[in-house]
Amino acid sequence: xxxxxxxxxxxxxxxxxxxxxxxxxxxxxxxxxxxxxxxxxxxxxxxxxxxxxxxxxxxxxxxxxxxxxxxxxxxxxxxxxxxxxxxxxxxxxxxxxxxxxxxxxxxxxxxxxxxxxxxxxxxxxxxxxxxxxxxxxxxxxxxxxxxxxxxxxxxxxxxxxxxxxxxxxxxxxxxxxxxxxxxxxxxxxxxxxxxxxxxxxxxxxxxxxxxxxxxxxxxxxxxxxxxxxxxxxx
Length: 234
Ligand code: OAD
Prior knowledge:
The chain is an alpha/beta fold and 234 residues long. It has eight helices and nine strands. It has helices at residues 36-39, 42-47, 49-65, 70-81, 96-99, 159-168, 187-193, 220-232, and strands spanning 6-11, 85-90, 105-107, 110-117, 123-125, 145-149, 171-175, 197-202, 214-217. Strands 3-2-1-7-8-9 form a six-stranded parallel sheet, with helices on both faces. Helix 4 runs parallel beside helix 8 and helix 6 runs parallel beside helix 7 (187-193).
């Protein structure tokens, strides 16, 4: 296999599926029979913040218990043993990359264990409940904390850094994402245009994308460790 110097790994809900977490677009999807408009849009939050807080407080309990699987641990191995800069851009709000001790993780869709103050932008780390009466520890405003999840209608996080990483990478791996939510779905295009080799790891060939050189089909908990072993040979 070719030697690479700058690797970007984009992850989606599929990498966490083998940790027992539902993906978004599966029939038992992560929104759990709630309407996307109610729990994943900024308008929904403005309409009924208590409902949204309750939803994420409940999800937090489940995500706090989840453990990383063989795919997350394969990334740990790659980061520890392969001589390249390796950055992870994740759409996942779970913290399984961190639990697997993955480094350089950029959460473009936010994190379940954070809340952000809409008054001053202060971010609080907590797996505890956050609600409409929570006080911002920085500006002391009451009821302005929002789960630090990027809702439809909001800007993604860390995009300057992400753009920079996509342009300089020579290998781009996309793992467990359906590639239907933009802009993450177009990251492969940027990486490809700037010269990277591009691989997709998914249960199925998503074939909604012209920019992958290779599709590796199967559960990431099996395909990714095998791929990492190949990369670490010789
Ligand atoms: P999706 O639910 O859209 O897609 C999950 C993908 O993972 C599908 O293509 C599955 O085929 C694949 N998959 C499932 N199990 C797998 C496994 N064991 N190994 C490999 N692949 C597997 O989830 P995302 O693409 O992450 O945004 O969704 C993108 C965004 O949509 C989410 O981040 C969320 C939502 O809007 C926010 O919440 C802001």
